[in-house]
Amino acid sequence: MVDVNVTPFEVEVRTRHGDLVRADVYLPKGKTGPFPVLLGASPYQKALRHLPPNWVFSFIEYGPMQLYLDEGYAYIAMDVPGMGRSEGTWDFVSRAEGEAIHDMIEHVAKLDWSNGSVGMIGMSYYCWSQWNTARTRPPSLKCLGAYDGATDMYRDWMYAGGIPSMDFVWTWLFGSVLLEHQAEGNSMTANGRDKLVFDLYKHRFDDEWWRRRAPFWELDQVDIPVMSIGSWGKGPLHLRGNFEGFRLVKGPKQLLVVGAKTFAETLTLYSTADFHRKELLPWYDRHLKGVENGVMERAKVRFLVQGEEAVHETTDWPPPEAKQSTFYLSGAKSSHVKSLNDGSLVEAAPTEAPGETSWSYPDPLWMAGVTTLDKDGIPDHYARVVTYTTPPFDRDREFTGQGVLELHASSDQTDMDIMVKLTLLPADEAKPKFLKVSQGWLRASHRAEDPLLTTDMRPFLKHDREEPIKPGQVYAMRIEMLPMSVLVRRGDRLRLEISNWESAITEAPMTHWYGQKVGTDTYHHDSAHPSRLRLHERPRGASAKDS
């Protein structure tokens, strides 16, 4: 049981939409106010705050509350409308939900124990609430500590590339929200709670329903200080949002990317008082207490380089010093893996004609998503997917920034799903056998890009309609890769995996709906169809600090 040394009291406010919403207030013990305020808002029921921050309780995302009480902050845990003790209808990450949090912020800012300066706190959904509230611009909201949170619910995780998410929806929505309400004696279906699962799948395109749930489109109006903290281990869920949030906001801002490699590690790190003392407490002290502590002299962008485990600094993202490097898909055997094709990833442009790799699906040997199991039950994640592997690198090279896969592909169907993963294969046998570097997704019928928002290294898809492909016709498609940073040492390799599904072992819980896919897809890689992976490469020798 996680405890704090004070007992909370409840406050309530009637929002502009007429809902009575409630929050628990924790005030520092033995201290005299008024206090600066930290507020976290979620659908996870403030009554459950006593549970420990363990991965089995993945919704306990407050951070170390006692630390902030000891440092003289009031801490507020709010139930969003329709959830826990708050009345109304649950309108998941909608602008109306952000406005309700706005109204609570302005209410508590005027209470006698508050000094009128409010910051927001918390990870994951709590971070969604931060982005969502900031776009409504509450006058008393002075800063965000935005750890691990998406900004565009459609693109960042629910329909990455246009492909519907599956397992996460069920483990999160039912495991962390609805069943927890039932366990507390609350209805799973009251206040519109049961509608979300159907709405998520009913709205297949980026329509008005999704736009109301995407702070992304209004973050360029946010001018308060924002510290955006992403985690490499949460790539398929939140990572893109932390980079986009940092890019878009207009006030003082910093970006930090931590090296936690899993969902559980990301939660554990956020629950650690030492992490907050080092990174977030100074941020809040500066912007809520006015302490001149030098936090604004920190580098604008800091990121852990995977494979090196060192923190580097730069002035923006992508790093201005990064250049583009290109790796071409080749049919030549890498002789490094037993996969469907064992292709190569090379830096020389293709000269062969024709060159292509075809495969059919669903594969009869798939057992856990695309993973197979041998006779002893040992999983093999490569055997039944398409791979392209580099030769051993002849020198250390760092790939930091954005990436894009330009894939020439055809199918005997009118649509195709493309799921890609870039992996580091260390030569050092003492290191893990593989390290995920980046991923990307695309449903071919969603390939249309928005010319106003697309860049050379980051396709931005419209997702406004389906455009079927013609069977047998070759299409040049661009797949956005998640932001990345990895050091490939001399002797290491990179591997690109391509399939239309993913491993239920390595990618859980961020797997996607397989659907009704039956057919044959072909990836073309010859002089007429130079499929290639383009990555930002950062010169070695730039500023670094040991993590």
Write the layout of secondary structure elements.
Elements: E1 9-14, E2 20-26, E3 35-42, H1 65-70, E4 74-79, H2 95-109, E5 114-120, H3 125-134, E6 141-147, H4 153-158, H5 167-183, H6 196-202, H7 208-211, E7 226-231, H8 235-248, E8 253-258, H9 263-270, H10 273-289, E9 301-305, E10 310-314, E11 323-330, E12 343-346, E13 356-361, E14 372-373, E15 379-380, E16 386-389, E17 397-411, E18 417-425, E19 435-443, E20 475-488, E21 493-499, E22 519-524, E23 532-538, E24 544-546
Parallel strand pairs: 3-4, 3-5, 5-6, 6-7, 7-8, 8-9, 12-16
Antiparallel strand pairs: 1-2, 2-4, 9-10, 10-24, 11-12, 11-23, 13-22, 14-15, 16-21, 17-20, 17-22, 17-23, 18-19, 18-21
Helix pairs in contact: 2-3
Number of E strands? 24
Spatial extent as radius of gyration = 24 Å
Strand order, sheet with most strands? 1-2-4-3-5-6-7-8-9-10-24
Distance between the amino and carboxyl termini? 31 Å
Biggest sheet record:
11 strands, mixed
Q: Helical proportion?
A: 10-25%
Percent range for β-strand residues: 25-35%
Average residue-wise pLDDT: 96
What can you tell me about this protein's structure?
- This protein has 547 residues and is α/β, with parallel strands linked by helices.
- The protein has 10 helices and 24 strands.
- The protein has helices at residues 65-70, 95-109, 125-134, 153-158, 167-183, 196-202, 208-211, 235-248, 263-270, 273-289, and strands at residues 9-14, 20-26, 35-42, 74-79, 114-120, 141-147, 226-231, 253-258, 301-305, 310-314, 323-330, 343-346, 356-361, 372-373, 379-380, 386-389, 397-411, 417-425, 435-443, 475-488, 493-499, 519-524, 532-538, 544-546.
- The strands form 3 sheets. Strands 1-2-4-3-5-6-7-8-9-10-24 form an 11-stranded mixed beta sheet, sandwiched between helices. Strands 11, 12, 13, 16, 17, 18, 19, 20, 21, 22 and 23 form an 11-stranded mixed beta sheet that branches.
- α3 links the parallel β5 (114-120) and β6 (141-147).
- α2 (95-109) packs across α3.
